[in-house]
Amino acid sequence: MNKRIKVILLAAIASLSVVGCSSSKGNEARVMRVAHNQGEEHPIHLALKEFEKIVEDKTNNEIDIQVYPNELLGGQRESVELTQTGAIDIAVGSISLLESFNKSYSVFNLPYLFNSKEHYHSVMNDKDIMGDIYESTRESGFVGLTWFDAGSRNMYTTDKPVMKPEDLKGKKIRVQQSQTNIRMMELLGGSATPMSFGEVYTALQQKVIDGAENNELALTNNKHGEVAKYYSYNQHGMIPDILIMNAKLLDNLSEEHRNIILDAANEINKFQVDAWEDKVSEAVEQSKKMGVKFYYPDTEPFKEKVLPLHREMTENDKEVKVIYDKIQAKAPTSK
Ligand code: GCU
């Protein structure tokens, strides 16, 4: 993070903390700040407001949850870094971003890793797989609590639809700040342009980039559909978000409060996942009204280009291979 921005952010967060302590919820309340980069209509925000309600009720307001949407406490990378140090208590991080904090997360960034939504959800709900991965960043200062659905990621562009990998040639496509995503875009033939989510709208508008890749909510909640009118379902990724928490804070809570936090995280996972499909349908309808057109290219040519990445990532890394194999073993066809 740029040093100047970090100083400004830390000063802003410190001043928020004072306000929090003297809140109407009482001087005794332990304020916990939760940061994310989505808008207030997004299912992640709605789920976190639910988290706030559950935790405050169950702790009789001894914990005061404060949710900051819209990158108010910084972009996703900054909020994860601030959660490492404890300047922020809880944050949401895409698995794409988390791979730079522990390599076990990188597997989930492999394109076409899951062969269906059922496969994806069964892995994310499998505590034997996810438990260790959530703990893998403990030494870096944070742990995972639960996951949020982020649907499937597809290409969208400002000038013409992407119907085959060749259409990406010479195009600057925004990807998340992740080595695996950058490599994926290289294999597809596009020019990978990593940047924070909050910068994408302006970059599209100012033609700094020709497109991006994301789920349908980016078109509406983040207004990308105002400038990018061609959305192609090449379905290269299903990359969830993880709710993370500063590890020391979680460990130092009383057992009662820790259990309340962990149970509430499980509850809002169900709430968010249940809300997801409806939100996607709404986003598609709304996008059509904005003039966005949806395309359904053959996914095989895309797969052919990027499947070598599976071997590249797993062949020299036993630990990563173990996770990869566990995920493959859960694919419905291998049963
Ligand atoms: C999705 C995801 C976010 C992520 C964003 C991105 O919206 O839910 O966590 O930051 O994609 O592409 O950066």
UniProtKB/TrEMBL annotation:
<dbReference type="InterPro" id="IPR004682">
    <property type="entry name" value="TRAP_DctP"/>
</dbReference>
<dbReference type="InterPro" id="IPR018389">
    <property type="entry name" value="DctP_fam"/>
</dbReference>
<keyword id="KW-0732">Signal</keyword>
<protein>
    <submittedName>
        <fullName>Sialic acid-binding periplasmic protein SiaP</fullName>
    </submittedName>
</protein>
<dbReference type="GO" id="GO:0030246">
    <property type="term" value="F:carbohydrate binding"/>
</dbReference>
<dbReference type="GO" id="GO:0030288">
    <property type="term" value="C:outer membrane-bounded periplasmic space"/>
</dbReference>
<dbReference type="Pfam" id="PF03480">
    <property type="entry name" value="DctP"/>
</dbReference>
<dbReference type="GO" id="GO:0055085">
    <property type="term" value="P:transmembrane transport"/>
</dbReference>
<dbReference type="InterPro" id="IPR038404">
    <property type="entry name" value="TRAP_DctP_sf"/>
</dbReference>
